[in-house]
Task: structure prediction
Amino acid sequence: MAVIHYNKYIWLVDTIRSAGKITKAEIDRRWQHANLNEYHESRIPERTFFRCLKEIEELFDIEIKCQRSPYGGQYYIPDSDSNSQTKQWLLSQFAMSQSLSASRNLKEKILYEPIPAGTEYLTTIVEAMREKKMLQVAHLRFDSKEAPHEFLLAPLCLKVFKQRWYVLGLVEEIDDKHDTPKNEPRIYALDRVQYVKRTEKKFRQPRKFHPQAYFSGYYGVFCGKDYTPEIIQARVIPIAAKYLRSLPLHHSQKEVEPCVFEWFVAPTLDFIQQLRTYGSELEILQPQSLREQFKAELEKQLALYNRIEDPEKK
Result:
C-alpha cells in the first residue's frame, strides 16, 4: 500500500480526533489547506472518503462513526475506541506526525528516541497479519556467528519495547538447532531481521490467543511457559515513589503502603533490569529469592570497588 495512503489515513484520524466531532464539509475545508493535498483538491471525494474510513478500521481497528442530525452528519471516534493502550499509542503517533508535517521548521527542536532498525518491515508485517499470510523471515541472533536463521512465521502481533520493534508469531517448522518448537509463540526483534517477505501461504489464527492477555503477566518481551508470574514487592524512597505513581511499571502495580509497591509479574530479565535502574533507591522485600539475588549482586559490585588495585588481579 502506498505511503501516501497511510499519510492520508493519519491526517484523517488526527483531524477527527482533535476536533471531537466534525462535519464532512469542515473536513473538506481543512483538506484544502493540508500539506498532503498536493493536487489542491477542493474536497475529498465521497467514494475516497468512505474507502479511507473502511481501511482505517481494518488496519488499525479504529472505527470512525457518524452522528446524524438535522444539520448534517458529524464524524467522531468513540471514547471506547481510543481507550486501549494500542489505540492511544497510534493516535499519539498520528498527532505527532501531523504536527511535524505542518511545522517542518520545528523538526530540529523536537527530540525523540530513534528506533535503531526494523521499522521498514512494519507495513509488510501488518498487511500479513490482516490477510493471515505467512512471512518468510531471516533472523540473526546477537550471539550467533552463523548465517541468519530462515523460517516461515505466522505473525500474531507486534510489540514495541525500549526503542525496538518485535514480532510475536508461530514458527511453522520444528527447528531443534535453533530451539524453535512448533505451536509455541516466539518473539523476534526486528532490528535483528535480515529480511521479511510476505508469502501467499495462509495461516489460521489461534482462537484462544489474545496478545494483551498473553503479555499481561510479563514486563517487556521475555515471556512464555519458562516464566511464571508471582508477587514482587519493593520499597523505594519518596522521590522514586512519585515516579512510579506517575508511570507504573506494569498494569498490576499497587502501592500497598506508602512507598511500598507490589506487582504480579514474572521476574524476567527485562523486569529485573528495570528494578536495577533504581539502584540504592529501591529495596526488594519479596520474594526472598529475588531479594537474595539483588543482595549477592550488590556485594559482588561492592567487592569490585573495594578491591586493591593490583595489576596481577586485573
User: Anything to note?
Assistant: The chain has three domains: 3-109, 119-212, 217-305. Residues 9 and 56 are 6 Å apart (CA to CA). The longest helix spans residues 288-306. Residues 217-305 form one domain.
